[in-house]
């Protein structure tokens, strides 16, 4: 399972034998592209991150969007969804069950802006040190990586594997995190008066020597680079720590305003207002459609799915143009994509109900109105509606013959900055047939088609999960530094809002 403590899309994906070996290098000519030299390796564990800033993405014209929505999924930007199976370098023939955790987990990533690193060639997400000990899913319990290289201010970043919430409140993990932050900063400050800058190996030795008892399992070993450590110059800016928190969120909680999400992930009234409006609009749309199709039961997972779709689309339509990366516009960033939710979390009954909803003549128009009503600016022009892509009839028909499953990466094409540049994400039907969706980091959202994974940042994609009782979860990232989870982390974990979210039941 991927480590879900991520900043900037940095996530170690553990591709299994479904990653093909190939090499590609060249210049991509699209306006948003950059020169990429990439290598695909069998069994590689890439770390996905942003090595170069992406230019601001512009909104596509209505005509272009209409074309992108209606044209067949055969494109020159990615392998066609309708291509013969032989086109794929790796044949996936078995569906992969949705991963099961014992309970909800958290992951954090803490950028230490006061601890700079320097070494020729050090790039974002290069591993500086990591524990020899791993969790059950193969993730190092703790590691240090580089972040900020794309801003010419590379710093040390602490990344944890997924842990139970209580592990961050007290005990060996909490002690190790506090010690590592303290010693990193002390060593960086010593560089101001030292004849030569301390190295990462000095931090590793000092940290390991101080660990006692159960905390010794967090002992570090050297990573890919032994960079030098230093404090920023006297004029250096932004030297505070910056934490981002990733949480396994019960999926059905998305469609409830009192689930705790608004108190934990948002820091302004406008952010909370958008989320609350999305919840209201999703439930209104669900009620209307259920009445239209004559369905007398309830579908909480479909409500959550509609809420995720409306919330995401409202931000893409209103905020994406002004963001360097689409994900930067999201204070509450759901890394589990709509396609993952559709194939992993919705039941066969949910899919059947959703299909009947989509078949209603006014569904897309009502979806557009719901997105509009969720925008902060009521005059926002709605040019993009993801339901036209994700809920394509062909996709829904294929999903109907699938069991719930984890969509599988293959053909991972990694850039020099350790991010996914292109990839295939596949589902396997009960009869063995396969459907491929394609990830392309160069495309603006107006260029996505029915053959693409819909995600504000594909490098951050994470699968859905279940707990031991079968309750479904998605991974959501709290991206704003001043939200409760990032600003007052330990207090937030002890808060009624967090306890309410973790114990939320459908």
Give a structural overview:
This protein has about 500 residues and is of the alpha+beta class. The chain is built from 14 helices and 16 strands. Strands 3, 4, 5, 6, 7, 8, 9, 10, 11, 15 and 16 form an 11-stranded mixed beta sheet that branches. It has a 3-stranded antiparallel beta sheet with strand order 12-13-14, with no helix packed on it. The protein has a two-stranded antiparallel sheet with strand order 1-2. Helix 6 crosses helix 9. The protein is elongated, with a radius of gyration of 22 Å. The two termini are about 25 Å apart. Mean pLDDT is about 80; it is low at about 5-90.
Judging from the principal axes of the Cα atoms, what is the shape?
elongated
Strand share of the residues?
Answer: 15-25%
* Oligomer status: single chain
Task: Output the structural class.
Answer: alpha+beta
Provide a count of the helices: 14
What is the helix/strand order?
A: EEHEEEEEHHEEEHHHEHHHHHEEEEEHHH
**Model regions low in confidence, pLDDT < 50 over at least 5 residues:** 4-89
Q: Characterize the biggest β-sheet.
A: 11 strands, mixed
Number of strands: 16
- Mind telling me the C-alpha Rg? 22 Å
Q: Give helix % range.
A: 25-40%
Head-to-tail CA distance between termini: 25 Å
Rounded average pLDDT: 80
């Amino acid at each position: 399972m991927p480590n879900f403590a991520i900043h900037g899309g940095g996530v170690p994906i553990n591709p299994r034998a479904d990653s093909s070996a190939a090499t590609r290098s060249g210049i991509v000519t699209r306006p948003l592209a950059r020169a990429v030299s990439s290598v695909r390796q069998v069994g590689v564990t890439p770390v996905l991150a942003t090595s170069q800033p992406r230019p601001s993405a512009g909104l596509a014209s209505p005509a272009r969007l209409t074309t992108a929505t209606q044209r067949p999924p055969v494109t020159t930007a990615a392998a066609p969804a309708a291509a013969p199976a032989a086109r794929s370098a790796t044949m996936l023939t078995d569906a992969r069950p949705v991963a099961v955790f014992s309970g909800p987990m958290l992951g954090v990533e803490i950028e230490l802006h006061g601890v700079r690193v320097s070494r020729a060639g050090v790039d974002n997400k290069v591993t500086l040190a990591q524990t020899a000990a791993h969790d059950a899913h193969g993730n190092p319990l703790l590691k240090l990586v580089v972040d900020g290289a794309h801003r010419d201010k590379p710093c040390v970043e602490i990344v944890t594997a997924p842990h139970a919430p209580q592990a961050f409140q007290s005990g060996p993990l909490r002690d190790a995190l506090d010690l590592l932050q303290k010693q990193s900063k002390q060593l960086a400050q010593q560089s101001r008066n030292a004849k030569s800058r301390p190295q990462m190996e000095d931090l590793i030795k000092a940290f390991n020597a101080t660990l006692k008892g159960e905390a010794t399992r967090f002992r570090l070993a050297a990573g890919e680079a032994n960079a030098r450590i230093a404090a920023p110059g006297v004029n250096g800016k932004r030297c505070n720590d910056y934490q981002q928190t990733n949480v396994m969120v019960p999926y059905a909680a998305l469609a409830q305003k009192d689930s705790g999400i608004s108190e934990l992930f948002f820091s302004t009234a406008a952010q909370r207002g958008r989320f609350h409006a999305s919840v209201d609009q999703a439930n209104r749309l669900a009620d209307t459609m259920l009445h239209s199709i004559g369905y007398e039961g309830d579908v909480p997972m479909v409500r959550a799915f509609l809420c995720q779709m409306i919330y995401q689309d409202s931000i893409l339509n209103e905020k994406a143009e002004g963001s360097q990366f689409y994900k930067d516009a999201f204070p509450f960033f759901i890394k589990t994509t709509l396609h993952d939710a559709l194939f992993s979390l919705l039941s066969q009954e949910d899919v059947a109900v959703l299909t009947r909803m989509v078949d209603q003549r006014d569904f897309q128009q009502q979806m557009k109105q719901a997105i509009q009503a969720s925008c902060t600016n009521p005059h926002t022009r709605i040019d993009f509606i993801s339901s036209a892509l994700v809920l394509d009839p062909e996709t829904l028909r294929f999903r109907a013959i699938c069991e719930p499953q984890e969509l599988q990466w293959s053909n991972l094409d990694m850039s020099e900055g350790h991010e996914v540049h292109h990839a295939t994400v596949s589902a396997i039907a009960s009869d063995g047939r396969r459907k491929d969706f394609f990830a392309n980091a160069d495309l603006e959202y107006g260029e996505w088609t029915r053959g693409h994974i819909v995600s504000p940042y594909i490098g951050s994609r994470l699968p859905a999960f279940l707990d031991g009782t079968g309750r479904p979860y998605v991974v959501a990232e709290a991206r704003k530094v001043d939200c409760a989870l990032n600003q007052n982390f330990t207090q937030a974990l002890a808060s009624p809002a967090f306890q309410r979210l973790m114990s939320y039941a459908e």
